[in-house]
Amino acid sequence: FFVQPMSYVLFVVFLATLLGLASGAGLEAFLSDKGDEGRSLERFTKGSASNGQCWDRYGHDGFQTVVDVHNHFQPFEGPNVPFAEYMEWMTEHGILFSTMMGLGQKIQKSYADLPDCCYYLHCPTFNYTVVPTTANDILNFGWYNNSYRTNKTLQESIVLIPSATFPNLQVPDNNTATLDQLITDYPNTIRWVGEVNIYKHALAANGFWNFPKVTEASFANDTALAAFLRRVAAAGWPMTIHCDLGCDNYAAVPGWDGRCVVGAAEAAQAHADAEWWRTFLGPYYGGFFNSTDHPQQNFRKIQHLKVWDAVLTQFPTLKVVWAHMGLSKELLTLHPTVHTYIMQTLFDRHPNLHVDLSWDIIAQLYLMNYANVSIQELQAAAHEDLHEDSETLFNSTMIEGLRSELAKVWEKQQAHVETFGSAAKIDGPTHAMAIYYVLIDKYDTRFLTGTDFVSSMGPPGKWPGLSQFKSPPTGCMKDAANHARQLTDTSSINMFLDDEAFRNIVLGGNFFRLTGLDAVYQPPAVCRPPAAGNSTVTVITIISTAGAVQIATPRAVLVGLVLCVCFARLL
């Protein structure tokens, strides 16, 4: 949660929590109602009788998303989950709308006699490079045309949006020609592009940095990359881009000894561009640059921000979906107040920027792993990202109060998440969740839901990877329970959203607008909560004067969730 520096600041936060509105007790199935009055395309079809039936997010309809904008139907290597089987998993778990991504890269062995590997972190060496290819897109487009378009029953159960995931943004010379050929070979099929990579630190050990690095010069007007991005923008397709903001570790890359650092040339360029960084980062500039405008070590966490902003600036009509909020396992310690400030600035600058909340690690490592984090770790005195110019922007008392209210909502859904999700990793909202909650609520037309599920069935005996990194081998076997777990984990933050944000993000309002499906579909209204007596309101008044904070919590009752933050400068 961040505010602008003031000598005196008056916060009045009206927070009606969702206490008593949902209960995990008695859940016998992943979805408690899948009939005509449950999850169906008709429920979302404009003009249908069931579209007028409100969505009971607190009861049988639930908080799980109906839209998966980040869904990989093909693995990096090895066998996939057969199409019909995967459709059963998705429909049984309540997915009604989904992109149909391949994986735009496949693992390429240097020598034929090397063990087969289905996931790059099972074989993180340059002998297993991850190389962009059309192979998975061709498989997906075949499925779409031969197994989906010919199956009326399936078309009445789920809407699929095929995506071209092959483009190589590092070596883009053939992207446009290849796209045109795929359009010729598979007419009226492609309606999305990506996930494609600008920066993906997780692939470092598999040769990602052996390709040219994307820079601002890469998409100058006369480059092949610029021509390709203009082509996608002209088509009106959304484009999912994986662009890590930066990195702070490589702990999740087995055996990789590469340190996460900013190169000398990049550091010199950041110094030369110091005024840009000062303008963008505002009060947070001093946390990343020293008094002589040279980047500090923690600058590595945001090192790719200027290139990312330049892409969005250069192609303002491109409908961009930023995968995973720019986070990854290789970026774990960026202060959430800084990150949300960066996202707010990007949203304000770029109206066509959207963010997907896909990937279960977002919940497991950032937002819903309360037992493993402490608010003390975010205090200005303890965190390298906060400087004396920004330390007053993090109000731990206010964040603690908001997190406590979110925790009460969590208690009502905890049983369901523990049954179908990662009980050992998802244990309640973090203080970071409270900070991101405020951003998501404010920019609720910019966020999308997704799982980042990878549909794979590589048995360990045939796809062992390298024993020094994966022993015993696990392969890449997925099943329905695994899909339910990943869907539950990624959906777990949905329970905290207010009703309007829930309609836009969870029930597809944003997705429909982004894809043009809003001509046919619209999210149903969200039901009013049950008896108002089950809901409480907490009024937190914080008056900051020279660091003094007071909190008052009177007894009150409200229906729904209202968040009002009022700022008043006392002159």
UniProtKB/TrEMBL annotation:
Which InterPro entries did the record assign? Metal_Hydrolase
Residues spanning the signal sequence: 1-24
Keyword list, A-Z: Signal
Q: Where are the transmembrane segments?
A: none
Protein's name according to its UniProt entry? Amidohydrolase-related domain-containing protein
User: What is the native source organism of this protein?
Assistant: Eutreptiella gymnastica
From the broadest rank down, the organism's phylogenetic lineage runs: Eukaryota, Discoba, Euglenozoa, Euglenida, Spirocuta
